[in-house]
Structures are given as structure tokens and as C-alpha cells.
Specification:
36% helix; Aspartate Aminotransferase, domain 1; 3-stranded antiparallel β-sheet; binds pyridoxal-5'-phosphate; 7-stranded mixed β-sheet; 14 strands
Length: 360
């Protein structure tokens, strides 16, 4: 069997142990005589799967009991719409901090059905940092930010501090579960699972119960957090296989020592790559400002686009795959999510040094 070093930005590497377990129990799930793909989502067996997934997420993130956990569909992109539909009362305005393409997309969607205000942006410096000048509206329905910008490789080192009474809403798609956080600081967190938490097809939403009172009465059921919470994310058929894999990933995370251990390992991996960039004498140029560069997505340029293409091609030939930068910014991007082993980062660092020796 061939397994490459997988630096894809999402869908991304999953822990090998998780894939092996899914494979081992695929045909006969826990003695049921059928696969989890074939059974009712109302079965006892699936009830246990989704219940354990929620419980383990609560343990890992230390989620207070006053928060609901939802397993939603439609990707993080649907949350760009659901957040304002549910949490911004008629006539109110919401604040957005934008430090990359995903925050910009969330802001654009929020402008469609009501008022949204740019509280800060780093567009002028091509999203190489989080916004430096911020201007918060103390009356805002919430303040939205993206903790890690997957495309630009910029990560908040700590949460922004909105004015008192303004709940913090975070798109945590590409760094959820990568480090401990204090959930109580947030009104709502959402994250597409397909980077750090599992496969595509399910989106995690963690929401303070108090905010559910804001949900308007006339929302279509699939867009209504309150109804989704009341139905335990099972108003309709949930993405059973995706929830099951998320559950396995969460068990794996616990077995690996939880989020503190993950944060340490992620720091170690990112340091390996950033060190090569910093010691390259300008051959590799990081996109993000050093103080805010991401531990999850390392973005950098080479002296020419031609060299970047050669780099990606030769890396792939050396079983280092998924390194081409996002089409909107170009360059190289190495995604170092939880499931990427330290050895993969070591292999990439070594390849980068060698590539510079040959081409620099
Ligand atoms: C930070 C962030 N937000 C949102 C999205 C969009 O996610 P989805 O494809 O699940 O809608 C992505 C996807 O890469 C992302 O990285």
C-alpha cells in the first residue's frame, strides 16, 4: 500500500488509524450485519455514534453545558448565511473582521439580507495579517472573524475583543481542535469538518443557548438553529458517514493526548517549515507576517512562478502532495493539520532545503 505525505488544504489528511478502523468495521458495523452506510439514522447504533461524537467534542474543547452542539450540512459556506439569518435581528447590523478570502466571503453573504459593517480589513496588504485598525460597533448583533485564513495562511494568535455585550462569532474551519480555546468567549463557533475534524459533508456548530432566542420564527427549518438544536441535528437525515468519521477522529485526538498535545505537535511541524523559509536568505518568502503566520497553512512564494511549478512537480514526484497554493494567490501552501505526522513536515523541510541547493 502506498501512502503519500498529504499537504492538501481540505479535504485533507485523516489519521491512518481512523481510516483503518473505518475499513475494518465497514462491512459489519459492531455486529449489526450491515455497514453504517446502510442503517437508519434513527437506529440505536447511530444514536450512539452521534451521541459519543458530541460528548467527545465537548470533552476535548471543554464546551460549557450552556452551549448546543450541532452537526449541520451545507459546509461552512452555508454558515455564512445562517449566522446572520439567525443572530442578526431585523434592522440590526453585524460587524466583520476580514483578513482573507473566507472572511470576505462571509461578509459578502451577510450584506445580502441585512446590514453588515466592515470593522477591520487587511485587504490593503493582501491579507498578510489580521486587521490592525479596528472600529467596533458597540450595538452590533455580533462580531464575526475567521480564526485561521486557509488561503492566505494568517491566524489570529488570540481572539479579538469586541465591545461588552457583542457576541463573538468565529469561522474556525481550518484550525478547530488544533489548540485549546476557551469556548465561553464565543457566542458561536462553526467549522467545516474536512480539514481538522473529519471528512467533507458535516459542519460543526457550537452555539451559546442564549443566542438561540434570537432566531426569527419564520426561518425555513433547515436554516433554523433553534429547530436544528431541538431536533438534535436529526430533523432530517444527517450525513451519517461523515458524523461517524468525525467521531473516530475525536476518539483519536483524545488518545493522542488531546488539544494541548496537538498544539505542541502543530507548533513543532510549523516551526520545521518556517525555519527553512527564514533561513533561506529570501529564496522562500512567507506570505504572512511572522507574528501572525498560521500553524495550519504555511504559505510562501519562490523567486518565480516557473520555479513554483517546478517545486510542486518535483515535490509530488517525491510523494509530497497537495502543495500548490490556492488558485487565487498562487505560490505554495503546505497544510499541516492535526492528522499530518511530524515526519511529513520533516520530509518537506528536507525537500525544501535540497530544492534550494539545486535551484537557488
Ligand atoms: C476558513 C474557511 N471557511 C470556509 C470555508 C468553506 O468551507 P466549505 O467548503 O465547507 O463551505 C473554507 C474552505 O476551505 C475555509 O477554509
Amino acid at each position: 500500500m502506498r501512502r503519500v505525505h498529504n499537504f492538501n488544504a481540505g479535504p485533507a489528511a485523516l489519521p491512518l488509524a481512523v481510516l483503518e478502523q473505518a475499513q475494518a468495521e465497514l462491512l459489519d458495523f459492531h455486529g449489526s450485519g450491515m455497514s453504517i452506510l446502510e442503517m437508519s439514522h434513527r437506529s440505536k447504533a447511530f444514536d450512539k455514534v452521534i451521541g459519543e461524537a458530541e460528548q467527545n467534542l465537548r470533552e476535548l474543547l471543554n464546551i460549557p453545558s450552556s452551549y448546543k452542539v450541532l452537526f449541520q450540512q451545507g459546509g461552512a459556506s452555508l454558515q455564512f448565511a445562517m449566522v446572520p439569518l439567525n443572530l442578526r435581528p431585523a434592522g440590526a447590523s453585524a460587524d466583520y473582521l476580514v483578513n482573507g478570502a473566507w472572511g470576505r466571503a462571509a461578509f459578502k453573504d451577510a450584506q445580502k439580507q441585512g446590514k453588515a459593517r466592515l470593522a477591520g480589513s487587511s485587504e490593503a496588504t493582501n491579507y498578510d495579517r489580521t486587521p490592525e485598525q479596528v472600529d467596533y460597533d458597540p450595538q452590533a448583533a455580533y462580531l464575526h472573524f475567521t480564526s485561521n485564513e486557509t488561503i492566505h495562511g494568517v491566524q489570529f494568535q488570540q481572539e479579538p475583543q469586541p465591545p461588552a455585550g457583542v457576541p463573538l462569532v468565529c469561522d474556525m474551519s481550518s484550525d478547530i481542535l488544533s489548540r485549546p480555546i476557551e469556548v465561553a468567549r464565543y457566542g458561536l463557533i462553526y467549522a467545516g469538518a474536512q480539514k481538522n475534524a473529519g471528512p467533507a459533508g458535516v459542519t460543526l456548530v457550537i452555539v451559546n443557548e442564549e443566542l438561540l432566542a434570537r432566531t426569527p420564527k419564520d426561518l425555513p427549518v433547515m436554516l433554523d438553529y433553534r429547530l436544528q438544536a431541538e431536533a438534535g441535528s436529526m430533523h432530517n437525515t444527517p450525513p451519517v458517514f461523515a458524523v461517524y468519521i468525525v467521531g473516530l477522529v475525536l476518539k483519536w485526538l483524545k488518545a493522542e493526548g488531546g488539544l494541548k498535545a496537538m498544539a505542541q505537535r502543530n507548533q513543532e511541524k510549523a516551526t520545521l517549515i518556517y525555519r527553512v523559509i527564514d533561513q533561506s536568505g529570501g529564496f522562500y518568502r512567507g506570505h504572512a507576517m511572522p507574528k501572525e503566520r498560521s500553524l495550519m497553512n504555511v504559505t510562501f512564494r519562490l523567486p518565480s512562478e516557473e520555479l513554483e511549478a517546478t517545486f510542486a512537480r518535483q515535490a509530488e514526484a517525491a510523494d509530497l502532495v497537495g502543495l500548490k497554493g490556492h488558485r487565487s494567490v498562487g505560490g505554495i501552501r503546505a497544510s499541516l493539520y492535526n492528522a499530518l505526522p511530524v515526519e511529513a513536515a520533516q520530509a518537506l523541510a528536507e525537500f525544501m532545503r535540497e530544492f534550494q541547493r539545486r535551484q537557488g
